[in-house]
Protein 1
Amino acid sequence: MFQSIAAVAVAVAVLGCGNVNETNPDAPPVGSDAATCVVSPTSTRARWRGESDASDDTGALPGTIVGGLSFTAGKHGMAFLFDGVDDAITADPGDQLWAAGSFSLEAWVKGTTAPADFAGILQKFDGAGMDAAGLPNWQIAVNAMGHPAFTVRSTTNNNATVTASTASILDGAFHHLVAVRDVVTKRITLYVDGVVGATSAPGDAFFTSMTSHDGKPDPVMIGATRQFGGDGFFFFFSGAIDEPAYYDAALSAADVAAIFTVPDGVCR
């Protein structure tokens, strides 16, 4: 059962989660420090923290670095730094992160360069890209205006997309993005910096089980998109991405606000 972040706030305050002023703010809870992080939800399936490698907090889905990707100061500790040319991370080679029900995506994003069309932040496409009608995909991306968007498709021939178009997130500061597909409320929602940026109820067809149909693995991509009809990569992101994560439950508004607010984000 999904354990609400808000529900464990008292426990966090007692245990502590490390201090934002420590040299490694992603460290495990220690001593009696003030509560500067929130307990990781039990629905966490993967979190790639970017602490100088592409390892996954859970140990189940380590990433593979593509191109000359480097690291930089992140929102919490270090972050992945993508050059917008050929850098990417792939993970989930066994197709474990196709959603049967509700799921959530998360990432901290910092950039200044807008893409010509759009750039992938965190995504998974069946059928070597989204050209194949009726094949699943989910993704967080940023468009040429610097506006973040959340797209999802189960088995329909069209994507359901919500775009937070109030302001550009490519302003040189870190912004917190959380995308949620909630099969109970039948809504898709994109949170930006702890609040709802866009939400929609696209219809029942977008909330069915997602699975691979192409007979081969469809890896998660961080910082890029899979090439239409092939296994190459394009639509590269330029900037920093910190702590991209996947949850197999719908994070609540309170959960999202809690992660955004605390200095160290989600505890190890």
Note: Residues 203 and 221 are 26 Å apart (CA to CA).
Protein 2
Amino acid sequence: MLEYFDRGKIASLSKYADHHSSQVPDYLDKLEQETWQKVINPRMLSGREQGRILSIFSRMIRPKRIIELGTYTGYSALCLAEGLSADGELITIDINDELEWLRAKYFQLSPFGQCIKSVHGEAICAMDKIELDVDIAFIDADKLNYLNYYKKLRTHMRKGSWIIADNVLWSGKVIDTEAQDDDTLAIRTFNDYVKNDNGVITFMWPIRDGMTIIQIVE
């Protein structure tokens, strides 16, 4: 809808929408600020708009178990954790332990510090040591393994559970015929595979860098 308006109107409408949405917890605002101040490639942060979508989605599902592949500084994990059931847990996996100090800091500042378990290592290997019968899986790790992550999750997740995949538009490269780098090809392959999986229903949401919401129905 916003494409029908000029940039000034879009900015005003975005402010209006933000004003009429629930306030983001202070610890998330502080985490976002510290990420932009101290971390390389802060654009990798999920950010307010996508974070609120993840929060609302998780609150609707009320998951008992969530797995996240790719933690970065922990923003998306904290948003997903908002919807956990009373005895729920979120397991988040990341290969980069250099940012562990930052995500641990904000996990403890949040109400969900005891519900979130951080695992260090390559996600594809760490998944073999974790029970994958989860209610929500969020894929946001290395792009070359997106399809491998998906296949492994599909094998273990039950009917009615959900998979969310981030960066599925890959900065628009998915429709750029000249873009033939490995990451772009991997995302295209993943997108096509999911589209042709008859056991799921999907919606690719063109928000930020694209996010596909997938429900397992068979």
Note: The chain has a mean pLDDT of 94.
Protein 3
Amino acid sequence: MQRFLAEQELWSQLQSITKTRKCPIKVAVPYLGKDARKLLHLRRGDAVIVELTLGNSRNGSVCPEEIARLRKKGVDVYVSRDLHAKVLLCGRRAVIGSANLSNNSLKHLDEAALLTTEKPVIRKVRSWFDDRMCEEVTPAWLEKCRKAYRPPKNHSEGNGNRMPLSNSVWFSGMVTYTVGFC
């Protein structure tokens, strides 16, 4: 099964998957904002991979305090310094798309993802996570990033209103497609 998710349907699915699951969750997102723990139902035994760098701490893309809160809940947090992927794995389901764990992503950005239960894809996603869960966030690194952290200046919370979007999404050649994010 494959299903395209966008905007509020994407966030509803992410929250539903993380709330009703019976297995650990693995999440990879480069950016993790303040109050990210409130966006998904993460708990002890779950794993998060994030691009926790001094630069991302300085520009507010990653909130070290939020990572500290997740670790306190028993969530394992790993560092990937060149991560750009946004992936969630829960048992036999994976969501692969554009959303980071941030209020900006939830309230302001036009996000989309593909939900899949295709067994070969799930195996590859699981292996992909295993290859990246090598460097756990240490207390010393977290403290260094906490000292460097500055709240983001370019993403205001605003009123949550989005620009109207076209009702049509066109895909060409559904066998394989690549979406570039920069």
Note: The first strand starts at residue 2 and ends at 6.
